[in-house]
Every structure is written in structure tokens, then in C-alpha cells.
Amino acid sequence: MDKAVESLLTQLPDEGPVPPLPPVPERARLREEWGWTKSQLGEALGVARETVWTWEKEPPRSPRGKTGQLYARLLAHFAAQLAGRAALAASSPALSGVVSVEVNAAPQEENAQGAALALSAALPLAADETEFDAPGSWDELPEGVVGPCVRCGGSTSYLVDGLPRHLYLEAAARAGAPRCDARSVPQPAPVPQPAPVPEMPATVPSAPSQPDDREAARSEPTSAPEPPEPDNAPGPIAAEPQAPATPAPRAEAPARRPAARPAPASRRRPAKKPAVKTVAPEHADGPIAVLDIQDAALTAYLVDGRAVPCPARTIQALAAWALDKNRIRLGAGKLHDNGFDQDPLLILTASAVAYFDLPAHLEDQEGLRLPADHKIVKQLTRAGWELTKSGFGPWPRIFKRLDGRRHCVQLAVVPWRALETRAWGDTDHLSAEQLARLLGSYADLVITPRGTVAVSGEELMTALRPPTKAVWNAQENRYVSGKVPGTLHTVVEPAPCEAPDEHPLVAADYPDEGTRPASEALDEEACIWVRPVDLVTGEERARSHVVALDVTMAFLAACRRLHVGTGPAVHRPRNPDFDPDLPGSWYLDLSHVEIDPRMPNPFTSSGLRPEGPAWYATPTVEYAVELGAHVRPLEAWVREVHSPYLQPWYERLRTAYLTTMACLGVTADLGDEEFLAAMAAHKDGDPALVTLLNAIKATAKSGIGKLRQRPNLGLDYIFGEPWPALSRKTWRPDIRAMILSKARTNMHRKMWHLATTANLWPLAVNTDCVVYPCDGLSPIPVLLGPDGQPVRGGFRIGINPGSVKHQGSQTMEWAVDLLTDGVNIANEIKDASLVRAA
To answer: pTM for the full model?
Structure first.
């Protein structure tokens, strides 16, 4: 803890009346005049810097409980000490800017020494001066108020001849006590420098969620928000619980000259410290529990490897047990101050399903959920529990209203295929303990699952950017729900060009499925393209091999710093000027833009030249301008309210991916050859980590797809009728279009730089994979220019999202043979066994 912060906290009383909080402007003034930053005050109170900021702005928001009491005592102490300092400075003008307060002396120590030297220059003192301070020649400062001694610069609580100075009494001289002297001012202590922040801190944060069935609790908050949790930094996954990492030793900077005046304390940033994961007592048993039968008894397996008995005999008793903090403390913290703590997740294995008398399979049930008249559902209802609109399916959510709040428990029924194979692999072979570890690691790095990986990816967006917060309503004298700018806080209609064919907006004009003209729809998809074989040159055919480069998490990389619309679409019907800063859809003709035929056209997903005017997302039009095209939109739907909404989502999933890869031996500090070797072997590592890696990648990809979820045609859906996804605030096909447009143009830009610099042209593209001719099996020569250096603006080998890895290599003969038949070799090169024999 900062020295000034620690010193001050020891001075505050723990008991006695709590002073009232001052008005909002006064709070900031007292902190700034005291010389503390928001970070220092947050450190003293155990909250984040952003929380302090909310307490110092309108509308007023104040902490409660012990945090609120400590905040009030701190501000009262600031006010009292600052008043004493002002009174003392007024009585002695020479002390203006010199007198400080004792408990705040640490951050101002160097300033005090510099001021003492300035004063001592006007008061020459002889080294052998023997005068003593006679009684009555000095005054004592008010309690807690100090000034820097004009001789040595140290803190003193005495005024001698109107100046702060240490006393020199005759009795002390006889005892041999040395007298402080201005010519022996001690050098300031070396200033510790912050330790380098490691890319992978050794702790894993708790990941909260923001469940959709808590909107009622959010819309009518009954009390002020709780102080936020201390910041946690994500880190690597471990199969066993890990101890916090030891902070790196701090390097010391050389001592500075005493006459140099440092920056004010309010402008000095405290050194960053490695974060240590803290778990709230109410979540001490972890976010999840896997229920299985052990020795004929129901047992709950926790993420830390413990197994505890579960006394529940029914589903309703199981939910009550999970919420009873006296018996089990399940759950996780929140990701954002405006969010909610995450609810417990209980995973039911096959033996637990049989124990609770649930069906072994769900395929024959209506809508993949238990019917409303099923005995389990009736028992829950009679016990006062409720289910969400999804009912009792593979991911049932059970809640009960108590004290004006919803207390929820999430279940996952493994035999009902709650854990889809494409993301989680075959979980049947995992023991309950192994399954708890796997899902617990995912919960720590990403979010506790609320459903499929697509649902979890969508929930993570909301958990990191809660749409509402508690706002004080002075008229009603209570907190009410307020919208948070920059978030998806309102359901908005898509523009007609952004809506899929089944949407009521489109079906009203085109009631027959498939009759909508292609030019009327925004078609921003990934590129799938094959170069015609007659455009493969003789020089290229002379190469021995072809090599495929795969862009790492290309769609997630496109979310980085991408501004997307958060408000409604605004129609601009008559020849609007293109504005690259406005997310939206633009109707214009890009068919005149010439692209080398050895490259895919960047404006269509097929890679072919557009046939006329069409709708394009902002990144596509921006790239056309970058290529030198003159763009003249005929019409547009833009979103004037926008923000980098997905930035925290990108950062959390990126960290989860890098952390898991590091555990598999692939790190950012590897050289190119080492990286390729590590990537080739990483899937042979710990199977649980490989499964976790797949789940993280699927969360990113499927979460983006969830933004444009289409109706389930297998549930008697009627074309043109609304489907449930349309009522979600996160149903935003325009945001998905922006991401895919950005990903496609990012990839094309790198291909273009490689082509124009190194004369290397792609043979095929499949979403995030591109194939090039090459002499040899290694992809490294492909990425180098004529000078042997990586092409500026081209692809880079690496682990970060947006970098590339080796997807596979084959012979040129193999490639030409398939290109002759129009086969996309980018889709086949990873596994040649999938290709028919030549």
C-alpha cells in the first residue's frame, strides 16, 4: 500500500460518530487539495479508481457500510487538517506552500525538503553556532500539523521565530544530542520504480454474469449499489489451485538532487502491483459444482478438487441447498461495478439425472424441454420455484423471489447434451472431478456457462458492459434503474437492409421466401474464393509446394477498438457524404473499382466483382476509399450513437486464449521456428487444456454469430413471424456485419501488401485461411519481402489474435489438380485425407 495512504489510515478513529458526507463538488476539492489521486483514495477504501470517480460526479452516488463510514472519516480528516494548514499559513505568510499535514507528509516529503532549502538560503547558519532555544521563543503547532525544518528539511511540529524548525535545547546539548543543520540536509531516499508488469499474471479472476432474468431486479433496485470488488487480473489456468505469484523485485532509481522539485503528489501515479485474486467469502466454494453418485450417495465435486455430500433428494431441495450459504458457498463475483454477482451452476451427470428421476434423454420431449405438466416441473412450482421462458431443458434456470430479489440457480444436464460436442468434445469420459476442473477453469477465464458457448459469449458481452445501473432519484428518494451510455440498453429495430429474410420488416415486402433481391440485403460475410486455374502463372506452377496461413481468431481480432452502433439506425435517403466514423450501412456502387484478378474482390464474400449498387458496412466502404476509389453513397442507414462496445469482450477472450496457450507451451516470446514447432505439438498436450482452448475459441466465434440469431425452423416457425431472439437487446445484426466486414478487409489488406511488395498472390481463401505458392513446407519465407524482412503491413507469425499460424502444406501438383476442378484448396489443405484421390 502507498506509504501516505497507510500512514493516514493509522490516524483515523475506528469508533465514534460518523461525520456526514460533504456535497459532491466538495469531495473532489478536498481530495485534490490534500494531494491524493483517485487511485490513492480508492486504495485506501479498497475500491477501484473508477468507483471514486462516480462518487465525485453528479448525480451523486455514495458508498454504504464500512466503506462509506471510512470515506466520510477520510473527508472529514482532510477538511480539518486543510483548515488548520490554511490558518497557520495565514498567521505566517513565510509558511505558505511549506506547511503540510503530518499524515500526508510522505507524498510531499521531497517538496518539503526543497522548500526548507529555499528558506534556509535566507537564513545563513554557522556550523558551530551554539545558540539554544530559550523557553518562550518557540510555539507548538496544532496537533497533526507539521512543517519542514528550515535546517534539515525533516518534519517538525514547532515554530521558532515564526519558522518551522527543530528545537535545540541546552539540556539536549549537554546530553550530546546533535543539532540539525541546513548544510547537512539528508538526500531523498531512492525512488522505487514499478516492476515490469508480466503479460501473464499468476492469478485468475472471477467472472460474473448478467442474467437476463434479473432485469426486474435491475429495473427496481431497492438499495444503493455495493462497493466494487478489488480489481483482479487474469492469468494462467492450472489443473491444481495455484498460489499467488511473488511480486517481482523493484529496481531502484538513483537518488535525485535535493534541490530538484518533484511533480506534485496529485500528478504522480502509484506503481502498479501484481494483482492477487480475492474470492468473496460467499463464493468460497467456487462457481460450480458437479453432482454425481459416489458410494450410493449424492456428492458435489468442486473446482478445487474437494467432494462434499449433498443432502438434496429433489430438484427443489437441490436449488435450496445451492443457495444456502450456511451449507455451501457457490457463485462468483461480478465483472463490472454495475453488474451482478454470478449465480451457482450445478452440473448433473448421468447418475445424478437418474437419482433425481429425470428422463435419461430429451430427444422425444416437446421442444427439447420437459412439458409443463411433467411431475418435476409441477413439484418445483408447488415449492414456490419458477423457471424462465426456456423451461426445463438442457440448461434450466430456476429462481425464487425473496426480499424483492430473484435468487437463481443454473443447472446443466450433461446427458441432455448441454455441453455440445463441437466445443467441449466428448465429456462422457471425464470423471466428475475432471469436469469440475474443466468448467471451473472456463468460469474463471471467461464466464460461468449459462448455456451453449454462443449463449455464454453473448452473456459475457452484457456482463462486461451492463446496460443499466442504479441512479439516485431525489424525487422518489430511492435508487432507480438508469441506462448506461455506450451499452446496448435498448432493443432497437434493424435497418431493412440489415434484417434477414425472415424478419417481419423484410417479410412484409417480400412475403415469399427467397424473393428478396440480393442488392437489397447487407451481405457482409467472410470471403470464400478460389483463383481460376488459368490465372496461375508458370512461375507459380514451378514452385514445389503450397502453404496455408490461418489467421488466429480473426473475428475476435476485428473487435479490437471497433466502434459499433449502440443506438437506433438513422435513415439518410439522399446521397449522403460517407463518414468513416459512423457505423452503419451504405448503399453505393463499387463495381467500378479495379482489383487484380489474382486477388479476391474485397467487397463481396464470393471474391467476385459486384454487379452493381449494393449495401456495404462502414469498414468495407472505408477500405474502398483506402484503395483509391471515389465513393458516392446513394442512401445510408447510420448509427450516430456508437462506442467501442466490444473492446472489453475482446480483451477478456484474448487473455483467456493466451493464458490457455501458455499452459500448452505456446507463448508470445517464442521465435518463428519455435512458435511453429510449439503450435504443431500443442494439441498433444493436456486434453483438458485442449478442450478448454476449443471452448474459448468457440465462445468468440459463436458469440458473434449470436448477434444475428435466426429462427429455429424446426419448431413450427411461420415465415415472417417474430422469433424470441428479436426481443434481446443484444440481437444486433448490424454489429455482426461490422465485425465480419472488418475481418474480411483486414485480411485483404494484408494480402494486398504481400502481393504488391513481394509479388506473392493468393491461390485460395476460405474465411480466415489463405494459400500461397512456396518453395518448401515452411510458411516463413512466404511472409518475407525481397529484403528478407517481414512485409510491412503484411501477415505476422504469432500467437496474438490477428497473427497467423501454419495451417498446412501440400505439393503444387496436388494444388493444381484440385484448382482445375474448382476445389477450394484452403478448405482441404489441413487434412489431405479429405481430398479424393487424383
So the answer is: 0.70
